From TrEMBL:
<dbReference type="GO" id="GO:0006310">
    <property type="term" value="P:DNA recombination"/>
</dbReference>
<dbReference type="InterPro" id="IPR022572">
    <property type="entry name" value="DNA_rep/recomb_RecO_N"/>
</dbReference>
<comment type="function">
    <text>Involved in DNA repair and RecF pathway recombination.</text>
</comment>
<protein>
    <recommendedName>
        <fullName>DNA repair protein RecO</fullName>
    </recommendedName>
</protein>
<dbReference type="GO" id="GO:0006302">
    <property type="term" value="P:double-strand break repair"/>
</dbReference>
<dbReference type="InterPro" id="IPR003717">
    <property type="entry name" value="RecO"/>
</dbReference>
<dbReference type="InterPro" id="IPR037278">
    <property type="entry name" value="ARFGAP/RecO"/>
</dbReference>
<dbReference type="GO" id="GO:0043590">
    <property type="term" value="C:bacterial nucleoid"/>
</dbReference>
<comment type="similarity">
    <text>Belongs to the RecO family.</text>
</comment>
<keyword id="KW-0234">DNA repair</keyword>
<dbReference type="InterPro" id="IPR012340">
    <property type="entry name" value="NA-bd_OB-fold"/>
</dbReference>
<dbReference type="Pfam" id="PF02565">
    <property type="entry name" value="RecO_C"/>
</dbReference>
<keyword id="KW-0227">DNA damage</keyword>
<feature type="domain" description="DNA replication/recombination mediator RecO N-terminal">
    <location>
        <begin position="1"/>
        <end position="80"/>
    </location>
</feature>
<dbReference type="Pfam" id="PF11967">
    <property type="entry name" value="RecO_N"/>
</dbReference>
<dbReference type="InterPro" id="IPR042242">
    <property type="entry name" value="RecO_C"/>
</dbReference>
<keyword id="KW-0233">DNA recombination</keyword>
Length: 240
C-alpha cells in the first residue's frame, strides 16, 4: 500500500459496517478525501475522539491498489476547543465546513482554500470578537477559488479604483462585483459601511470599528444562489 502523510480538517463522518467509520477529510495536500477508519467504533478504540468533526489532524493514510484510503495513524494538532464550547461559534464553524463539503469534489487539491479555512477556524477559536469577519472572509475566498469571485477593489464596469468618496455604491454579483455611481449598470444599492466592509474582506483586513453582520447576510445570499440550495446549517440556525 502507498502511504500518505496529510494535514487535514475533519468535515464529517458516518458509520460503516459493525465497527468502522468513513470520514470526510479536507486535506492540505490532496483536497477532500474519504477515509475508512477500521475499528474506530469499538469501545476500546482510542482514536474516535481524535477524529471529532472540526479537529485539525496529522493523518497517516494507506492507499490500496483499488484507490480506497484507510487511516493508519493520526495526531491531533488542534481540536478548536473554544469553538466547540461556544454555541454561536460552533454554528459558524459547522457552516464553513458544510459549504466546503458541498462545493468541493473529491481528490482535487485546494491548498490555498485549505489555508483560508484554517485561518478562519483559528480566528473563531482564538479571537471570537472577529467571528463575523472570519465567516465572511471565508465565504469570499471559497467563491474566489472556485471561479465565482466578485471584484471588490474597483468598479467592474469602468475599473475606477474603490474609494470611500464614491457618491453611490452598488453590488451586482452577476456583473462581478461593485459598481460605482457613474456607471448605469443596475445593482443592489449599499451604503458606505457595507462597501467598506466588502473592500476590507477582499484585502483580508479586519476593521474593528464596524460590524460584519449585515454584509454577511449579503454574502450568504450569494452562496445560496451559487449552491442552488440553502445549506442545512442555515436552515437550522438561520444566518450564522
Amino acid at each position: 500500500m502507498k502511504k500518505h502523510n496529510l494535514t487535514c480538517i475533519v468535515l464529517k463522518s458516518f458509520n460503516y459496517k459493525d465497527t468502522d467509520k468513513i470520514y470526510t477529510l479536507f486535506s492540505e495536500e490532496r483536497g477532500k478525501i474519504s477515509v475508512t477508519a477500521k475499528g474506530v467504533r469499538k469501545i476500546t478504540s482510542k482514536r474516535a475522539g481524535s477524529l471529532d468533526t472540526l479537529n485539525l489532524i496529522h493523518a497517516s493514510i494507506s492507499e490500496a491498489k483499488s484507490g480506497q484510503l484507510y487511516l493508519s495513524e493520526l495526531e491531533v494538532i488542534d481540536p478548536f476547543k473554544n469553538i466547540k464550547n461556544a454555541y454561536d461559534l460552533s454554528n459558524k464553524a459547522y457552516y464553513l465546513i458544510e459549504i466546503v463539503d458541498k462545493f468541493l469534489f473529491d481528490q482535487q487539491e485546494h491548498r490555498n482554500l485549505f489555508l483560508a479555512l484554517l485561518r478562519s477556524l483559528s480566528l473563531l477559536d482564538k479571537n471570537p470578537s472577529t467571528s463575523d469577519f472570519s465567516v465572511c472572509y471565508f465565504e469570499l475566498r471559497i467563491m474566489e477559488y472556485l471561479g465565482y469571485g466578485i471584484s471588490l477593489d474597483k468598479c467592474v464596469v469602468c475599473m475606477k479604483p474603490y474609494s470611500d468618496d464614491w457618491d453611490v455604491y452598488k453590488l451586482n454579483t452577476s456583473s462581478g462585483g461593485l459598481i460605482c455611481g457613474s456607471c448605469s449598470v443596475s445593482g443592489l444599492h449599499i451604503d458606505l459601511t457595507k462597501a467598506r466592509q466588502l473592500h476590507s474582506l477582499a484585502k483580508g483586513k479586519y476593521l474593528s470599528d464596524v460590524s460584519y453582520r449585515a454584509v454577511g447576510d449579503l454574502l450568504k445570499t450569494y452562496v445560496r444562489s451559487v449552491l442552488d440550495q440553502n445549506p442545512k446549517t442555515l436552515q437550522i440556525f438561520g444566518n450564522v
